[in-house]
């Protein structure tokens, strides 16, 4: 695993986590139990913190970063990912907060100060501009993003199932030694 310190802060992994050896995890990054980081992910907790919740997964080629603290923004923008979140391939998450049971579609970009409430589906290629709030229970798509429609029961169930699928897959990888 490519875990690296930054100013003597080393990433922390909960029980049963999987981090692909081609990924880079730097500094103040905490992965909760059963989280998974897939190939070529870069997570840089250097100028602020990154937290990734239980059973959440970040897929191939995604970039996770933060915004430094400043006089204009004393807390900066950490990156907080809740539980049971699926971050699709090649996503960019920068200084945003994601609740629980969220699916971020492939190639989506979520910018500084964004708050995504629980149970949200963000479509592939969606751009979420800074400081937006995405309301629970909806599908968001587009560039810039638009609230498209409420999620149906099947889509809501899939949010949790996607996380379960990745927990099972990371367990297979871990069992291979």
Automatic annotation (TrEMBL):
Q: Write out the transmembrane intervals.
A: none
| InterPro entries tied to this protein | Hexapep (IPR001451), LbH_gamma_CA-like (IPR047324), Transf_Hexapept/Carb_Anhydrase (IPR050484), Trimer_LpxA-like_sf (IPR011004)
Superkingdom of this entry's organism?
A: Bacteria
Q: What is the name attached to this protein's record? A: Anhydrase
């Amino acid at each position: 695993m490519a875990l690296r310190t930054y100013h003597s802060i080393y990433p922390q992994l909960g029980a049963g986590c999987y981090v692909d050896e081609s990924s880079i995890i730097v500094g103040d990054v905490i992965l909760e139990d059963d989280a998974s980081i897939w190939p070529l992910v870069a997570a840089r907790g250097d100028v602020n913190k990154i937290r990734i919740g239980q059973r959440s997964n970040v897929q191939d080629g995604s970039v996770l970063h933060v915004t430094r603290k400043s006089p204009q923004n004393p807390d900066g923008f950490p990156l907080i990912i809740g539980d049971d979140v699926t971050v699709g391939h090649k996503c960019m998450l920068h200084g945003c907060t994601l609740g629980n049971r969220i699916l971020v579609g492939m190639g989506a970009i979520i910018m500084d100060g964004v708050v995504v409430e629980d149970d949200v589906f963000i479509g592939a290629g969606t751009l979420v501009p800074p400081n937006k709030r995405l309301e629970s229970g909806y599908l968001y798509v587009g560039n810039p993003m638009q609230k498209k429609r409420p999620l149906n029961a099947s889509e809501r169930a899939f949010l949790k199932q996607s996380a379960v699928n990745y927990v099972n897959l990371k367990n297979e990888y871990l069992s291979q030694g």
